User: Which sequence fits this backbone?
């Protein structure tokens, strides 16, 4: 039974090596399937609103706006924002340029009170907005966007709205539910630093070892079932008065 002994040793030691990560995979999968992704994203905290119609008579011509700033954008978007219509110009290099479409100039700086008021207008719920903090450097949970206004709400989920200091739009939402989900996501993909890379060698290696555990587990099951079946047949043949198996 060398195959049985070898399979048992491989299965046992590999299970000890990656067993904790397998637990994280199963636990992470449970969290990710049990919590609706809409709740994780905070969509249930966003007030449904109809976009205001654009008054094109107030919008400056794109060529004139871009020419004044000496920009040759690869893409331009005209959109409605809480502070009015805005041109978003994407240059060949660098960050997008956001301008007040009525003047062709950058929006005036957004104050803390304006940020709090605009976040509260976009929030669905009864909890008050307790403060607004301007973040020059983005917090990790925002996905790297900066600068931003962070507005906190006193609800049971610890909801935070991150508001653009230019347009007053809520660019992302975070809560305790999101952080709980994100913690298990990072464990699930074995990337505790950024939670983004699921193709790194550590994850690939752990997955390969787990595959070997599954294969050796099936091999052990097959060997043990075959042995148990042989023992059962031997006991049947040894029973007094039992007819040979070929006559049944």
Assistant:
């Amino acid at each position: 039974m060398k195959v049985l002994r070898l399979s048992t040793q491989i299965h046992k030691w590999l299970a000890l090596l990656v067993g904790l990560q397998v637990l994280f995979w199963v636990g992470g999968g449970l969290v990710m399937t049990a919590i609706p992704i809409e709740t994780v994203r905070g969509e249930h905290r966003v007030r449904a609103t109809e976009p205001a119609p654009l008054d094109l008579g107030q919008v400056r011509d794109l060529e004139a706006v871009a020419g004044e700033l000496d920009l040759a954008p690869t893409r331009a978007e005209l959109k409605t924002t809480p502070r009015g219509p805005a041109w978003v110009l994407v240059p060949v290099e660098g960050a997008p340029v956001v301008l007040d479409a009525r003047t062709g100039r950058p929006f005036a700086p957004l104050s803390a009170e304006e940020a709090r008021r605009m976040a509260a207008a976009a929030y669905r719920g009864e909890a008050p907005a307790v403060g607004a903090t301007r973040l020059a450097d983005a917090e990790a949970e925002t996905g790297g966007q900066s600068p931003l206004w962070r507005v906190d709400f006193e609800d049971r989920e610890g909801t935070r709205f991150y508001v653009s200091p230019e347009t007053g739009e809520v660019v992302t939402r975070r809560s305790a539910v999101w952080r709980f989900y994100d913690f298990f996501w990072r464990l699930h993909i074995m990337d505790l630093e950024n939670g983004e890379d699921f193709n790194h060698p550590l994850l690939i290696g752990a997955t390969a070892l787990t595959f070997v555990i599954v294969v050796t587990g099936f091999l052990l099951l097959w060997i043990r079932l075959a042995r148990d079946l042989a023992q059962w047949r031997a006991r049947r043949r040894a029973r007094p008065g039992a007819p040979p198996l070929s006559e049944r």
Observations:
- DSSP finds six helices and seven strands in the chain.
- The first helix runs from residue 2 to 34.
- The mean pLDDT is 85.
- Helices lie at 2-34, 37-40, 62-68, 112-122, 176-189, 201-238.
